Amino acid sequence: MEIELLEKEIQRREEMLNNLQGELKEGLRRLTRTKIPTPKALEMKQEEARKRERKFISTYERWKIRARESREQLKSDISKGELASLMDALEKEKETVLNTYLEIRSHITPSPELRRHVDSCEAVTAEIMKVTYERMSDLDGDYDAEQGHRRLRELLKNSYARSIYGSTASRVTKSICSHKSTTLTLKQVDAAAELAAKEVEFEGLLEEERQMEKIAGTAEKNGIPEPSVFNGDPIQFIEWKTSFMSLIDKKAISPADKLYYLRKYVGGPARKTLEGTFYRNDSDAYKDAWNKLDNRYGQTFIIQKAFRDKLTDWPKIQPRDAEGLRDFSDFLNACQDAMTHVKSLEILNDCEENKKLINRKVTEALKGNKEFPSFKDFAAFMATEAEIACNPITSAYALRSSESSTAKQGSREPKRNKASVLNTQTEADTERLKPVKGKEKPPCTFCQNNQHRLHGCPKFIAKTLEERREFVREHKLCYGCTKPGHSAKDCRHRHSCNTCKGKHPTCLHDDNYVKKKRVLPQETAITSNAGQTEASATSMSVITGQPTNTSMIVPVWVSKKDAGTEKLVYALLDTQSDTTFVEQELNDALKADSLSGLCVRGYRSSLLINLPPAYTKDCIPVNRAHIPTSETTKRWNHLSKVIEEIPPLQDCEVGLLIGYNCARAMAPRDVIMGGDDEPYAIRTDLGWSIVGGASTCPDTSSTAGQCFRVAVRELPPVTLADAIRILESDFKDAKEDGKPVSQEDILFLDKLKNHIKKNSLGHYEMPLPFKERPTLPDNKQLAVMRLSHLKRKLLKDERYKEQYVKFMEEVIEKGDAEEVHDDGKEGEKWYILKRDRSTADQNNKRRRLQKSKLRVVFDCSAKYQGTSLNDHLLTGPDLMNNLNGLLLRFRLHSTALMCDIEKIFHQFHVRKSDQDYLRFLWWKKGDLGAQPQEYCMRVHIFGAASSPGCANYGLKHLATENKDRYPLGSQFILRNFYVDDGVTSTDSSEKAIKLAEEARRLCALGGLRLHKFVSNDKAVLESIPATERASAIKDLNLAFDNLPSERALGIQWHVESDCLKISTNLKEQPATRQGILSIVASLYDPLGLIAPFLLIGKEVLQQMCCHGTGLDDPLTNELRPRWEKWKNDLNNLERINIPRSYAPADFGKVIKRELHHFSDASSTGYGQCSYLRLSNEEGDIHCALVMAKSRVAPTKVTTIPRLELTAAVISVKTRNVLKEELGYADIEEHFWTDSKVVLGYINNEARSFHTFVANRIQKIHLYMNQRQWRYVPTDQNPADRASRGCFVNELISSNWFTGPAFVAPELSVGDPEVKETRTLNTETVEQDSLTYRLTKFSSWTRAICAVGRILRRINKDKSNVRLLNKGCQLPPHNKLHHLNPFLDNNGVIKVGGRLRDSNLPLSVKHPTIIPKEHHVTRMIIAFCHEEVKHQGKGMTLSAIRTRGYWIPGIGRTKLRRWTEEQKMADLPPERVNPSPPFTYCGMDCFGPFYSKQGRSVRKRYGLLFTCFSSRAIHIEMLEDLSTDSFIIGLRCFIAIRGAVRQIKSDQGSNFLGAKNELQEALTEFDGDKLTNFLSKKQCDFILNAPGSSHVGGVWERQIRTVRSVLNATLGLSPGNLPDASLRAFFYEAMTIINSRPLTIENLHDPNSLEPLTPNHLLTLKSTMALPPPGKFIREDMYARKRWRHVQYLAKQFWSRWRKEYLANIAFRQRWHTPKRNLQMRDIVIMKDEDLPRSEWRLGRVVETTMDRDGLVRRIKLCLGDRKLGKNGERLTKRSVLERPVQKLVLLLEND
């Protein structure tokens, strides 16, 4: 009865819980939206829930039966197969229960009872699986029934398990014993436990209901905000998470409630992510859920990718889809706002990423600030466009709607203006969709009738025009032919309208539409080519007869702050411009150095407005007709109030454009409105202006509209990756730099070689090297247009015009150009254009014109109809000399020479038939008012792609043809010219004079003029005509005036002092990444002479790039101090004077030259420097810096050895350049590095390295000999500055320019780290002195007797004794000075000291001074040391002085005792008594070896067994060094070789000196487990004492032989062997070792028997196994057949083993005599190879082990403890170790 009552109570509580949960859910739903299902729906829903619940109960009961059966089966001894089947069956039933539960959970919230069932199912299944795994692992040995039953009874301890096993147990008990009381008690316990759980859950739900009632009451009043449902969109994740955290997570509710809400507001894929988490309701489950969501959707990369994917997949926006444009704009703004939270979205600012969004904004940006627009600019641009497109009043859609409502115009339309459009689109054709042609006609899209198409459908035509257009728009049909699949702009079959003859279907004709007329705009777009990427831009204007439209253009006064000059100009107030622009002429008139600090005020106002920083522009594109005047106001009555306010038209230009970045100037102060179609007046602080107007239609038919393409290329900015890639270029395994020659280069050379000739004027004539002779369009129209632009520029600048006309007239007068009078052949003429200069060029143009002549460059890249002249010209190969090579040779000798070829391009003529391709337009005699005439160039021109190649080829051709006639001049032109600049140096003035003369004569043969000569030798300059000297030297008096400075290939050369200087004329740049890059890149130092200083600037730039700093972002506070210090130090560069010549002028003849290359690296950078060491006939040495390089360390973490190796490779590369360019073929070279690791790499030829190291070592070995590399200490390595950087003062005071001090004197060739081989000459000299005779004594007593006899013969020390005899003190530099010595009455030198008044004996107060190195002294020290029982240095020294002796410098004397040893023990019985093979054996492991498994490489080890009796070995392969692997190896060994009686092994310390991985892996080795395994196999496992590897020499020797030969043999393999091949190779090696002879005495006796081998004893066969037939050669290493690979390695193993082992096993050479046995209580110190001798631990012998021969070879000792208590007691447990006697040093014997 009690059980029934309990079950009823439980059922009642469950119903209440379900009702509460239902009410709770309904309450939550009421907070959002009330949804009342129909009764039928409720009934069906309940029925479905009941079905699922019944299904769950059924599957759960099946699982319970399976769990009980599994437990019963585990009580008996079953096989592993049955255990596996049991596990599979139970796991399958559990998965069924979980799937059923998930199905219920996807529809309704499961009841607590179901959740408890699921938890019990998972827990019980896991426990049974654990017990089964333990049984299958066989770790417990044979099955133990009692232990198994005890383990199964432990499963019943948990409360959830009793409910599953309880009924089964009760039924079994009832059937056996019929204990009803036990069954009832068990059920009562279960029911009571369930009731208690229900009560607790019931109370929790009641509390939750009370809280929800409070929430509901508040919600009814105010309405509760709640987060949206997150469905897995990463873009919405951050917003959703923020709302959830603020609305739910911050509430004071339990984690279970928060998890419930989280489940409620998560759906879709995100809900599937959290399925497993909702099974729990603790706080960890809530945290785990958020962790999963953050990892899946919250990572910045995921969010960034979602934004980019959505942006990429955005559907195409139709031309009139304003709403679609607005949606796209909103998403762009969302991307921009998300950048602050998702930093990786900043990649959208990159031009490569943003190139898909290119639009006319790019063109505007390029014209403005020359930078590619950022994503923010694009988003703002799209927002503006969307706003314009969606404006309800002014948008195109609104205008069309308004136009459709107006009255129809007359049927007769005025004649439209003719419009011609030229090349309005240059985008590449994309693949267009075409309708598929079929046999059946497609039906009408509107009515699906096959008899007509849409444009002929009567039902469609009956609709209104707006309805027809909407239908075409919705179905994405073409507006030109009403067919699907393409747009109107791509339509090739446009219909013709029957009404207006327009290119559109008649059904879409709009009677209210009037086509506007277009005319040629004032500013015609011109074509230029700056690169590869082209964008099209159109500019159209509508003429309206007499225009009355006006804009916000007002007259203003512009001035500079703190300046009195004002300029009157018109200002355009542009509300769509984000920047302010100033016309260039206005800026020049104000003399403004910078474009900041400008002020503006109104025409009649005194209020000054500060303008923001502005940009200059050649002209402000405004039509003066749009300037409002007082006449404008008279046309409109409502504007009569402001007639007096608006001034008349002023005589000034529009010189200012003010954008909305100056809001104060644009703010409206008053507005006068008119009608809908009337203009309005607006007043700002700058005055009144009128906006709007009306226009009348023109009645002329001669107006023509033209639209031109503007082709632009966006030069990509220097990105962070580009900057870092350049700074870290050395860390790419790229090919060496060279000059590759392509097929086009060969064609270029062939054309010039076959057609070059000298014409009648003495010049070389060459054709234009076309790829193929082109047929070009007539671009004269473009030339006319460009000439008109040039005309306007010339009229604006008189100085520019003068220079330009002068240059062109000189070209024509010299015959470089001639006038043409024919039209030329069609297709074979082209008009070349003068290149327009960029804005930056225009800003500096006037300053340049004051300094130098103008050079006109022709624009041969200008495209017309998609082609240009440069597109068809070959550029040719790179024929120019290396710039660094020219500078290196420029410094070789004392006399320098520099010159230039005048207009080198114009000295080589173009073939007559090709001159029409170089036509141009020009005014005759520079008269700009005359009609332009046609000219053609007769020479190669600046701007043509082929001109540099033709000029270089012609120059080298000239030198080659005359090399025999002028050898010096020819060599000079071939080797020392860079385009038209020649620099060289000679060793004498005479040679320089001759060289200059030959070069001038040789150039004159080709019509070239060599002029602008400069030399540091005035004798050379005097030999050159004044007209041919440089302009700065022409008027100098060479006898008195100093020579000025010149530039030699970009480097400042102070000619008078013959020094090189670093130019620092740098512009002021802001402290941004772009400004820093500009300054660092502007320092021209091709030879690296100031490389350490430049490294600091590069470091700052690299750190900015690593921080992701933008181009215009300011410098961070951390980097600013270092940058400012470096920038301020730039001015100090002028203090550096570098001698141009490597050797001084008076150095004399050089007889020996050496190159020394130093390299170094640090964590911040790496670099190298090379020095030329010169020796003259007098033995003087001079050293000079030749070339250096410094690089910043890569951002990726790289080890110092790798950086050092990279610096060494840079040294080798520099050496190659120097050796080639300097021309020293047999020069002696030395390489220095302070990295011993790099020296080890270079000198190592046996080991293989990783790819990075191997590639660089190969480069070094390719060019250099290992013996050329040497070690240099870091403090003497000058390259240390190149790797760390330094400032100018430190650079000047260091040895950077002269090299280290040890390079200057004569060098001892050789590495100081390498031991020298010396030959010694021994000479025997007979010594007959007292000292020599005293060395014959070994006893102190006998020596005293001998000294007593010969004391009278000792001579006194002459110097010291003479001073002491006179009573003088010894000088301070004397070693005995501090002892205050004196002579006693016997003439003995003694210590004076301060103990004269003490009561000590005289020998102690004044001890006798004896020399430290004397033999007598050593005998005294040994005597005293033995007397004090070896108690240390202090006790010995005290005993010496007590005896009356003072020995100077005795403190460093060391006396050490040797380690103990003992006679080698007899061989154990198992070594000398016969026994079956491997009954007694030793065991050890070796390795590792590397094995290839698929794409991965694994470590494998060898386990070696050595038989004590037969000396045979057995090798097994181990996968690792774990205990399990050892046991597997042992089992394999025993299975093959049979039972083993005894195995000996050491304790692993022999691995300490081998591999680190052996040491780490052996710590996991379980010796007890291995011993248990061997004991079960009736095998003894004996471990030797730690550290006594010599005891196991019988197997250690075998391991040494096998391991060394295996390593060398496997090194021959090009790759790693797989496991099967490695195991086979082990077995082959084992067979070879077992075939060795056991004795070698009879090996050389032809009459002896066959030597006995271990294989004879193992196999009992007299013949050994033969290898496979065939000859195995090295090529088998690369064969596909693995067995041949293994056999070749086995053959190599046998050869090496025979050579390296047999010769070394004949003798034993140690421990032949017995020694004293260590005894109890002996004091010893324990030797430790890893510690210094002073730290060896002290110990006392506590136990000895005596062998059968009575000798002690192993002992146990107790170690001393340094940490003792106050009373000397131990604080830690006593440490007792076992060690062999060979590891001990005896200090005190027991007796």
Write structural notes for this entry.
It contains 54 helices and 49 strands. It is extended, with a radius of gyration of 51 Å. The strands form 14 sheets. A seven-stranded mixed β-sheet has the order 8-7-4-5-10-6-9. It has a five-stranded mixed β-sheet with strand order 33-32-31-34-35. Strands 42-41-40-43-44 form a five-stranded mixed β-sheet, with helices on both faces. The protein has 1791 residues and is an alpha+beta fold. The longest helix has 43 residues, at 180-222. The relative contact order is 0.03. It has nine domains: 2-222, no CATH class; 319-400, no CATH class; 441-516, no CATH class; 550-668 and 687-693, Cathepsin D, subunit A, domain 1 (Beta Barrel); 743-993, no CATH class; 1137-1303, 2-Layer Sandwich (Nucleotidyltransferase, domain 5), CATH 3.30.420; 1357-1452, no CATH class; 1469-1704, Nucleotidyltransferase, domain 5 (2-Layer Sandwich); and more.
Low-confidence blocks of residues = 27-33, 167-184, 399-439, 514-546, 695-712, 836-851, 1306-1314, 1549-1559, 1699-1708
* Secondary-structure content class: alpha+beta
Helix content: 25-40%
Approximate strand percentage: 5-15%
Number of helices: 54
Distance between the termini: 92 Å
* Number of distinct beta strands: 49
What characterizes the major β-sheet? 7 strands, mixed
Q: Shape from CA axes?
A: extended
Mean pLDDT: 76
